[in-house]
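Our preliminary data section would be incomplete without showing what the modeling component actually yields. Below, a chain of 223 amino acids is followed by its predicted structure, encoded as tokens that our downstream tools consume directly.
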Amino acid sequence: MRATPRDLAIWASSPLALIAMLTGCQDRAVPKAAEPASVQPVVQAPSDKSDSAAGAALPDDEAQQIAALDAATRRIAAAACEPEEETIFYCKIAKGKPLSVCATKQGKGEYRYGGQRRELVLQEGSWSVDSYARGGESQIRFVNGDTIYTVFSRMVSTSVEEHGSGPAISDGVVIESSGKPAQLRLCEGKQAEIPVKHSAARRVFGEPEDLFTGLTSEADTIE
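Predicted structure:
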């Protein structure tokens, strides 16, 4: 089993994912890093000089994670959030609209949805993480009045295949409003370009709390 650069990045930020892979889960596929036209700003790949400066200012685990990312993935992260911010989560939802969770310069977590003109921005938030027999899940929750937006990254073993257990991997957001059926919106291809980064989430949101919703399990059966 050959680890890809994105596998290294996921493992560096999520010990649960590393444990899951070591216990039999297959490699998580690396999505194509095509940048949608609606994502802005367009940022060129960082130079070696800027990479070195960024790594020197970060803890060792974060510096190693950034070094493991390929140039295309770094461009995605830069486009998802402002250059001076850190991307905690990023993917494209239906019709290519970007969904991101960013760590602002003030150290706050911010949920952003929409392209050049953002349709929704939410601040504050809290997060949770849990482990399963083979896999795990992390969720970040934002509240807007009576509506809850839960961004998630999930990997669970759902079947036994010829070469072992086949993991179901999914990323997206669950939207719950009082009096309305919950909505499950998956990332394109069911996977995020930047899954929830545990180390960044911990710095921004503090210690993880209990899982907020089990509705994410519906993603396991969606092709």
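The helical segments are 5-13, 15-22, 48-56, 60-68, 71-80, 198-205. The mean pLDDT is 74. Preliminary results of this kind motivate Aim 1 of the renewal.
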